Amino acid sequence: MTGRHSGTLRAAWAAAVVLGITGGSVLGGGAARADDGIDKLSAQQIADRSRDALLSARSLHLSARGEFGDHGPPMTLELSLDRDGNCNGSVDLGNRQGSVRIVKRGDDVWIKPDANFWKNQVPGGGSAFAAILNGRYMKGSADDPRLRNLSNGCDLDTFRKLVSDNADNDRGTLNKGRRTTLDGTPVVPLTRMRDGRTLTMDVAATGKPYPLRITVRGDGADAVVGFSAFDKPVPTTTPPPDQTYDISALLGRTSAPV
User: pLDDT tens digits, residue range 70-90?
Assistant: First the structure.
């Protein structure tokens, strides 16, 4: 089970790339502070403080949906993750290509592909896997080479590193819009043109200046990324033993990635 499933978290990392809108000087990693007057700052100052707020989060919920310009179908992702590498959520590959439930807690990982995933991602053998699992999760170790891409993607520290690595990738002029609201929350929109695309980030104008929503439009992309539930615990419920199936028993002792 290689290829597209090894990139099931690409929507999440696309969000990190989009965060290039926050490009500028790194502020030294200090704790982000609440700033209710952030709309009085320059666009770059708001972007810098927003990045610091995001990097300070211990956990968050990431929501991504749409076309990210990779010539693939629209994808949907809902994922809660934290710095300890725990995560809980799902990825829908779009166009009836299948969806996957993901749970990671400590050193254990559970994944549950649906019937469309097995049919489209494992031609010729998917129906047999689906029949064996019969709606159960595959369970394995986070150190299992077949689950490594997935396990790394579930770690908020991996996400934070990508944001930091793209901090100075600031092509294009950053513009600040007028203060407005997003689902009732005061926000300041920042906009930048990059590579033929318009990127807009809505930054919370009260409390910590978290980025709450990013949209990317143009050149094959039409997507929305949302951030919420900052510092709230990732759900701790894991699939019970009678709803799991050992990945090695299902796939054999091959090192091929899932």
Answer: 677 788 889 999 999 899 999
Residue 70's φ and ψ, nearest 5 degrees, are: -105, 15
pLDDT in tens, 129-177: 888 899 999 999 988 887 877 777 788 887 777 776 666 655 568 899 9
Give whichever of 55-69, 92-106, 152-166, 227-241 has the largest mean pLDDT.
Answer: 227-241
**Cβ atoms 108, 151 nearer than 8 A:** no
Number of Cβ atoms within 10 Å of the Cβ of 122: 19
Which residue is associated with the tokens 């759900």?
A: 235
**DSSP-based three-state secondary structure for 23:** coil
188: β partners: 203
d(CA 40, CA 43): 9
Q: 3-state class of 5 per DSSP?
A: helix
Contact by Cβ (8 Å): 90, 106:
no
Which letter does DSSP use for residue 41 in this model? S
Q: Does residue 66 register a pLDDT over 60?
A: yes
Q: In terms of Cα–Cα distance, which of 73, 27, 48, 82 is closest to 201?
A: 48
Q: What Cα–Cα distance (Å) separates residue 173 from each residue in 53, 115, 170, 235?
A: 22, 46, 8, 39
Asked if 171 and 183 touch (Cβ cutoff 8 Å), the reply is: no
Residue 199 has pLDDT above 50, yes or no: yes
Q: What is the 3-state secondary structure (H, E, C) of 138-204?
A: EEEECCCHHHHHHHHHCEHHHHHHHHHHCCCCCCCCEEECCCEEECCEEEEEEEEEECCEEEEEEEE
